[in-house]
Amino acid sequence: MHILEAEGLTLRFGGIRALADVAVAVPKGGITAIIGPNGAGKTSLFNAISGFYRPERGTLRFDGADITRVPAHARAALGLARTFQNVSLFRGMTVLDNIKLGGHNRLRAGALGALWYLGRAAAEEARLRAEIEREVIDFLEIDHIRDLPIDALAYGLQKRVELARALAMQPKVLMLDEPVAGMNREETEDMARFILDVQEERGITVMLVEHDMGLVMDISSHVVVLNFGQVIASGTPAEVRRNPAVIAAYLGERAARRRVA
Questions:
Q1: Which of 14, 80, 213, 257 lies 20 to 30 A from 189 at CA?
Q2: What's the rounded mean pLDDT across residues 239-249?
């Protein structure tokens, strides 16, 4: 059963073809990795799925509904949450305040109540904070930094806070764009453990773009390979690892022929 299906996605920037008739089916409840060489179209695919880019052609279905023309904020409300390749947190705000922003799409208080912070708005805010502390902060083991400003955190912790903000949205699909980029070995192992826990304990479908092939092969159940904006392979990590087209994309045609031979 697929929770997300893209068919025929085509995206151009001037004369540059970022995506060319891309078809991707994401199994529900698993971890799907999108891999490929630099410039293959991985982040462009993420941006098309999350609504930041509008493809010139193609359709996108999420949880059985056509969301091709649904704007980005509405896709987030439906259950598509993502992190970014570069940390996108609000400087000058605390860890807790940054995480709470992820849950504000679920608040229902009217503008007047929110403006004066009265009644329903105050009660909703209190419930949201309690829920985040219980379900997100404890889960990601960041209680010790909850009141610190983002600027005071090491890079690896900032990436974890960004993951926490996405989880505060209570997503059905969590899209992680290079979640371990720039991390040391210990930070990478911690992030891998949290990603697995998100999928196994909470049943959230995970999509990730990542260059760390060790991480991809260790935690993914399904892998899609892009090259020059096209899907060249998909399958289990073992199947993709042996695929000659994938080997050629990463190592070059001659190296691929020697390896296959």
A1: 80
A2: 91
